[in-house]
């Protein structure tokens, strides 16, 4: 797949989507190479021209020599005539062009939610070296709004004469839009929608620094698509410069790495988890931390049981003071240095004075419980950042 084999990419995407046994392994392997693509979310009401626009954006990117991945979270998108048909489908006009890889997925029922499923497919496409990933989603339901969080830059497609339909869009979608598109601007009335958007921006949804531009397009002819892509790039660059993790808060950028549970005895505690159907895959004593750990995978995360080897240790003191229980939550992030800087800048109380390097080579730091609602939070870098 890394060498550009499209069939291998299709198989990997299927493995990740189907939730079968190899899923976690494939994902973990892909994550080591993920993070390099620009993910562009294209959202808006049904019929606004999202699919037509995505097709044009893909064409434009191909013209620039880029490879493209398309994730359509919309069963009605015309790439397939049926979202569940799978990976052999090609967007009209891209047959035979391995540079555009399209995957449609149903918007409901996926394991762990559609946003997570979309994020996972993005990770695989990224690992396969796709330069830009276009994610089409209908901006009407909560599921779909969450998909937007998987993207670095979000494009909201509106059309003239929408009137009440604008109101029917989730308020959340309006707020996350980085670029507004007035599509079907050949139909007349574009000025009015544009004026409505500008008026709305005046009403306090404007965010610091980046004012979402409004771009007019005619998706059927490709008019305005170059301008749109420029606006998307400017936004991506702006976010990068400002250290903004566009995917923050969504499964694309953050994920639960593990839960650390302090126990008096691993031998006594593991029985419950085993009865639950989990199993210990790895046990280890970390000498310098005076702790013995047992790892129990849980989806892509894991529970870590922590047993002190001495009373005078972090876990030993925790047990003496608070008793057995949740000791910390570990969250994996992309861009741990930027995260450290941002939290520091925001005055969050950290329990580490810098990003540390752990025994296995992984990088981490701790956030003090007084900033998190009472739980010690470990932030772990992702595998691609000099991790183990
Ligand atoms: N006149 C005009 N029709 C468009 C334009 N963009 C898309 N359409 C048409 O609008 C319909 C819906 O487009 P589609 O891309 O499927 O919308 P989606 O539901 O948002 O993905 C199709 O018949 C398109 O050909 C445009 O800019 N102008
Ligand atoms: Mg569509």
Ligand catalogue: guanosine-5'-diphosphate, magnesium ion
Rg result? 23 Å
CATH architecture of the largest domain: 3-Layer(aba) Sandwich
* Total domain count: 2
Tell me the number of strands.
Answer: 15
The helix/strand order is HHEHEEHEHEHHEHEHEHEEEHEHEEE
Number of helices: 12
Structural class: alpha/beta
Q: Work out the helicity level.
A: 25-40%
Low-confidence stretches: 80-92, 246-252, 384-388
Protein name: Methylmalonyl-CoA epimerase
Keywords: Chaperone, GTP-binding, Hydrolase, Nucleotide-binding
Domain VOC: 255-382
GO molecular function: GTP binding; GTPase activity
Structural features, described:
This protein is α/β, with parallel strands linked by helices. Helices cover 34% and strands 23% of the residues. It folds into two domains: 236 residues, Rossmann fold (3-Layer(aba) Sandwich), CATH 3.40.50.300; 128 residues, 2,3-Dihydroxybiphenyl 1,2-Dioxygenase, domain 1 (Roll), CATH 3.10.180. The chain has twelve helices and 15 strands. A hairpin with a 2-residue loop joins strand 10 and strand 11. Helix 1 packs across helix 2 and helix 1 runs antiparallel to helix 4. It is elongated. The C terminus is likely disordered. It binds guanosine-5'-diphosphate and magnesium ion. Guanosine-5'-diphosphate (GDP) binds next to helix 3. Keywords: Chaperone, GTP-binding, Hydrolase, Nucleotide-binding. Pfam families: Glyoxalase_4, MeaB.
């Amino acid at each position: 797949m890394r060498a550009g084999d499209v069939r291998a990419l299709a198989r990997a995407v299927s493995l990740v989507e189907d939730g079968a046994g190899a899923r976690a392994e494939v994902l973990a392997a892909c994550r080591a190479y993920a993070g390099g693509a620009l993910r562009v979310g294209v959202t808006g009401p049904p019929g606004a021209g999202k699919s037509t626009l995505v097709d044009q954006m893909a064409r434009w990117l191909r013209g620039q020599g880029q490879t493209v991945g398309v994730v359509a979270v919309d069963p009605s998108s015309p790439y397939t005539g049926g979202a569940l048909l799978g990976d052999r489908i090609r967007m009209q006009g891209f047959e035979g062009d391995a540079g555009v890889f399209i995957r449609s997925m149903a918007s409901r029922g996926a394991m762990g939610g559609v946003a997570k499923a979309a994020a996972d497919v993005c990770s695989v496409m990224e690992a396969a070296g796709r330069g830009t990933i276009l994610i089409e989603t209908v901006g009407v339901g909560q599921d779909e709004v969450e998909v937007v969080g998987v993207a670095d830059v979000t494009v909201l497609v509106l059309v003239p004469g929408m009137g009440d339909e604008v109101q029917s869009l989730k308020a959340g979608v309006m707020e996350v839009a980085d670029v507004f598109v007035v599509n079907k601007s050949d139909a007349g009335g574009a000025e009015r929608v544009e004026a409505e958007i500008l008026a709305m921006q005046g009403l306090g949804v404007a965010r610091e620094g980046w004012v979402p531009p409004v771009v007019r397009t005619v998706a059927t002819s490709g008019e305005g698509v170059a301008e749109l892509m420029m606006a998307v790039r400017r936004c991506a660059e702006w976010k990068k410069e400002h250290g903004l993790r566009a995917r923050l808060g969504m499964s694309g950028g953050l994920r639960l790495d593990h839960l650390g549970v302090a126990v008096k005895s691993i031998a006594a505690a593991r029985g419950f988890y085993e009865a639950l159907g989990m199993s210990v895959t790895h046990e280890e004593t970390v000498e310098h931390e005076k702790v013995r750990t047992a790892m129990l995978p849980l989806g892509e995360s894991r529970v870590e049981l922590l047993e002190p080897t001495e009373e005078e240790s972090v876990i030993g003191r925790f047990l003496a003071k608070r008793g057995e229980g949740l000791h910390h939550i570990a969250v994996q992030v992309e861009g741990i240095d930027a995260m450290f800087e941002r939290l520091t800048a925001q005055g969050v109380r950290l329990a580490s004075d810098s990003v540390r390097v752990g025994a296995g080579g992984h990088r981490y730091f701790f956030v003090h419980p007084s900033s998190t609602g009472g739980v010690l939070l470990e932030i772990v870098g992702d595998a691609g950042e000099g991790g183990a």
